[in-house]
Amino acid sequence: MGKTQSLLGEKSDYLLSHTCQGISKDQLHLPSGDFVDRIFGPSNRSVPVLRNLQSLFSAGRLADTGYLSILPVDQGIEHSAGASFAPNPMYFDPENIVKLAIEGGCNGVASTLGVLASVSRKYAHKIPFILKINHNELISYPNTHDQIMFASIDQAYDMGAVGIGATIYFGAPESSRQIQEVSKAFAYAHQRGLLTILWCYTRNSAFKKDGVDYHVSADLTGQANHLGVTIEADIIKQKLPVNNGGYTALNFGKTHKNVYEKLCSDHPIDLTRYQVANCYMGRAGLINSGGASGENDLVQAVETAVINKRAGGMGLICGRKAFQRPMTEGVEILNAIQDVYLDDSVTIA
Prior knowledge:
Helix 9 links the parallel strand 6 and strand 7. By secondary structure, the protein is of the alpha/beta class. The protein is built from 16 helices and twelve strands. The protein is 44% helix and 14% strand. The model has no long low-confidence stretch (mean pLDDT 96).
């Protein structure tokens, strides 16, 4: 644990010694090498879905651990190509995105139809592909915030992808339509033997109040996760929670005092444990996002990995921190994340 402790610095004891009291680890379905057999095997998932799930879990440096490290690069649409790739123009070329995922030891690469289709014959059999089927584009004026379909399930199947990904903006005015669209897409994806990953985001300007951003509150993101697994997302992608009490601060919806008084403290591992609980106690894996690139990306990525793993999560999906820098540095960050999950001394809290 020496390298991890060194990177965590003064936060080392705070993050590595914490024990969750509200929701204990023995209530969770934790990642392990037999996760597909143990958790998905008894479910309604078909043999082709199980095969593709196992292909994802058996790839990269984290192969057969039950943990996942995925490189997501859909930001060319979600944040614009200029904003995403100008810091490192080599990633305008889709092949370099896939090369980064392979060199970085990832279980899979998640990207757009254009990116993956352009190199599918060369790489789809070398690293698991996950096709992101919907996006929010930022060229309409004024900017809108709505996930619309860009690709189909059949296109994912035909290029040899193991699965699809989609985003829902829970809480947005368009969320009802998005839930119905993605639910139908996930059902058809499972029929075609593809696994499903949901980018499970909250979005509504009212979720910011008195200078506090409750888009990343444990209670609201937890409920988004619960809706995501309801439409049979096999894996949930969620932002790391940084606060709690979105329901109470905004005075809407329904919640319970135990969420704040018994199940959660303000410790980030407890807040993330509540996210895991809302993924059917870990039956659907929680992968947290790495966030935007900044000054201390390596340290922040390792912190996030430690929080996710100790909370009972399944891994990290880290993009901008890895591709908005030279490839060697991106590989270093991806490997540092993976090292946390390979380190048996980083235990479940």
